[in-house]
Specification:
With about 150 residues, the protein is an alpha+beta fold. The protein has one domain: 3-Layer(aba) Sandwich (PvuII Endonuclease, Chain A). About 30% of the residues lie in helices and about 25% in strands. Strand 5 and strand 6 form a beta hairpin. The longest helix has 18 residues.
Length: about 150
């Protein structure tokens, strides 16, 4: 199957989730954890033309033009980071198979937010989508990974 079907398949996955939630009110079938992470990585690879590395490569998920990129996907209000990546791409997934680009820029800009803070017991610093959106405002277009295939 061609990768061009990826956004449609992600949308279908969320439609099934919606049907299950309608059948069983009060139960949540929201994709989370590894599924959201993998969906985000695949959507990023497809839309930005990234070369994905082996799953679970520490601190780097893909490369593009020699740049190492960590990809984070969320459906919520924050993402977690264990280290400062060279480049960080954060996507907020939607139920139609698309996403909103929350942050696309140098990882050091985000990692500075954790300076002087004690390392959390789980090893992951949390940063809100709202704060990432604010940090993105200072990222110039030439610092971003260019999107190759339009989202939506």
């Amino acid at each position: 199957m061609d990768k061009e079907h990826l956004p449609r398949l992600v949308g279908e996955l969320y439609r099934v989730v919606g049907e299950l939630e309608a059948m069983f009110p009060g139960r949540h079938f929201t994709p989370d954890g590894h599924l959201v992470g993998s969906l985000g990585e695949c959507l990023a690879a497809y839309h930005y033309g990234l070369d994905l590395l082996r799953a679970s490569s520490p601190g780097v998920d893909a490369v593009k033009d020699g740049r190492e990129i960590e990809i984070k996907a969320t459906q919520g209000k924050s993402v977690g980071l264990r280290s400062g990546p060279e480049h960080l791409l954060v996507l907020k997934l939607d139920r139609e198979g698309g996403f909103a680009e929350i942050y696309n820029g140098p990882g050091k800009v985000v990692w500075r937010e954790f300076e002087g803070k004690a390392k959390p017991s789980n090893g992951q610093y949390q940063i809100s989508v709202k704060r990432l959106t604010q940090l993105m405002e200072a990222v110039s277009p030439h610092q971003r990974v260019a999107m190759k295939i339009a989202n939506g």
